[in-house]
Write a structure and sequence with these properties.
The chain is mainly beta. The protein has a single domain, classed as Porin (Beta Barrel). The chain is built from one helix and 14 strands, in the order H-E-E-E-E-E-E-E-E-E-E-E-E-E-E. The strands form two sheets. It has a twelve-stranded antiparallel barrel. A hairpin with a 2-residue loop joins strand 12 and strand 13. The longest helix has 13 residues. It is globular and about 50 Å long. This is TorF family putative porin. Pfam families: Gcw_chp (PF09694). Keywords: Signal.
């Protein structure tokens, strides 16, 4: 999910360190007895990349969010990030989302909902930058690898989107057995108002992460086939995050 975005690209973070069986059993029983789960995350990243494009001017960004999930699969949450200051977007982004996720078959799960992008410091005289975007994805376990395909569609919305936009993507992620290391790969395609006038562009990334307790350190190479935009190009992005 973009929701709980503790990294600028999808980094499948797993913690492989063992704990006593009794403690695991007690923790599992406690989780089963709670119908509502609340989680939070904070992160420091060297570059906030959204669909391959830097939203922080290739500078450091501070990010964080929280989720409230019900045992039925429904969830709500919010996520925020600092931005490169601009007249249209201001210097911050706030995402609010709600949806449902769950297993539909053995090794197969879906996630669907709607996300609202809010730029509270944007200049209304320049234009309304806020917009909403429904999304859906399906994830399959293929042995040790998880594969996800998904799409997000934003209809025309005034000055924010003078036309509609479709984003489709695929992700692969796997944890290396008996290690705290995970690997990930991503490929996406955007076409419409949010393609920077390109007529459609690709973004991709390759990443790895290592986790210990609540901390995750991730590194990813992120790039697009867009022409040079304001000096940005492919970049290696580091992210340190904590999940609670």
């Amino acid at each position: 999910m973009r929701f709980s975005r503790i990294a600028p690209v999808a980094l499948l973070a797993t913690t492989m360190f063992a704990s006593p069986a009794l403690a695991q059993d007690e923790e599992a029983e406690a989780e089963e007895s709670r119908p509502i789960e609340i989680s939070a995350n904070v992160a420091l990243t060297t570059d906030y990349r959204f669909r391959g494009v830097s939203f922080s001017g290739e500078d450091i960004a501070i990010q964080g969010g929280f989720d409230v999930a019900h045992e039925s699969g429904f969830y709500v949450g919010a996520w925020a990030s600092s931005l490169e200051d601009s007249a249209l977007y201001g210097n911050s982004e706030l995402d609010i989302y709600a949806g449902w996720s769950g297993d539909v078959a053995t090794g197969l799960s879906i996630d669907a909902g709607v996300l609202y992008y809010i730029y509270p410091n944007g200049n209304d005289l320049v234009g309304d930058s806020d917009y909403f975007e429904p999304y859906a994805s399906i994830t399959a376990a293929l042995g040790p690898v998880e594969a996800t395909v998904g799409a997000a569609y934003a209809p025309e919305q005034g000055s924010a989107l003078t036309d509609d936009n479709i984003y489709v993507y695929g992700d692969l992620g796997a944890g290396i057995p008996d290690t705290p290391i995970s690997l990930s790969a991503h490929l996406g395609y955007s076409d419409g108002s949010l393609d920077y006038g390109s007529g459609g562009y690709l973004d991709w990334s390759l990443g790895a992460s290592v986790s210990y307790d609540i901390l995750t350190l991730g590194v990813a190479y992120v790039d697009t086939d867009l022409p040079d935009i304001a000096g940005q190009d492919g970049a290696v992005v580091f992210t340190l995050s904590a999940a609670f």
